[in-house]
Sequence to fold (271 residues):
Amino acid sequence: MSVRGNSIFRDRWAIRCIALTAVLFVAIAFIGLVLLPLLQPNVKAAGLWDAICSAAGIARKPTNTTPVAPDFKISSVVVTPEMLDTADAQSIGRGATLAHQCAICHGPAGFSRADSPNLSGQYASAIYKQLKDFQSGARSNAIMTPFAAKLTDQDMIDVASYYAYLPRLPEDRTRQVIVAPQIVSNGAPLRNIPPCGSCHGSIDHKVGSPWLQGQPAAYIKAQLQAFARGQRNNDISQQMRNIARQMTPQEIDEAARYYSSLSQSAQLTGR
Ligand code: HEC
Ligand code: HEC
Fold:
């Protein structure tokens, strides 16, 4: 029996279905491989082909070796574990004099009463990095930027050494103790969030991560929101942006409230 007469190409509906499937295929490939990769706010592709390959997960040899520059300033500070470890008395003394101009906001003893971050007992490397970033424009803040602009590299080393040398406020037993929220004590492994203290101190310290205990809640919350939105983007390799983006608004609130409820020298206690 001949099947020629039954060829699906004679059936108008079959042809329509095939055409519709083909159109859908092309449209979906365009949306998935071209449109969405190019619209991603956190990824910058070198070109159309680059976007297609990265969306399809195809590893390629880079054709040009110049990295794709983001459209904002990134931090140029190189942080090393031993950086500013060996501050001498002269440097700390010079830092103390320089710190007079900072006292109005950061407090005479490095403890702020005006929702500016506390600096007493902060890691010297963290202070130095932030000052460098304010000066270069990698981190910007209308209030802080003009103060960093005037400092020389040595001034920043000295003032960072001075604040790191100041003691953290001791434990205040009368404060209400809040139990560490899940996001702080355990992180969220399924969302790639390690416990905060694994970088920020108390569990372990990853160089360049500031000490958070006792910082004002409003400050912590504002920084986490700024990282999540990409408005603060001076964190090297997006360490904090990748974390903050994955946090829920409630987790941001809980972490801010918890860290601010601790006295500066408190160590974290898990559940
Ligand atoms: C007029 C108020 C004011 C003065 C004066 C001031 N700062 Fe600040 N500083 C701020 C505020 C507000 C922030 C938080 C900025 C933000 O929200 O991004 C800040 C942030 C910082 C940070 C970042 C801290 C962190 O944990 O990330 C450092 C370091 C710092 N200031 C050091 C200094 C030093 C050193 C001086 C003096 C040379 C100084 N500041 C003078 C208001 C001030
Ligand atoms: C992988 C390490 C890492 C982990 C985990 C981490 N952070 Fe950070 N965080 C950093 C680094 C590094 C910085 C400093 C970024 C920069 O260079 O400006 C930072 C900065 C911050 C700041 C701004 C502090 C300041 O004074 O400028 C806040 C607030 C913060 N982190 C909160 C958190 C919270 C809450 C968690 C847990 C949910 C967390 N971080 C987990 C590495 C980490």
About this structure: Residues 101-102, 104-106, 116-117, 119, 127, 130-131, 141, 143-144, 147, 159, 210, 222 surround heme C (ligand 1) (CB under 6 Å). The mean pLDDT is 90.
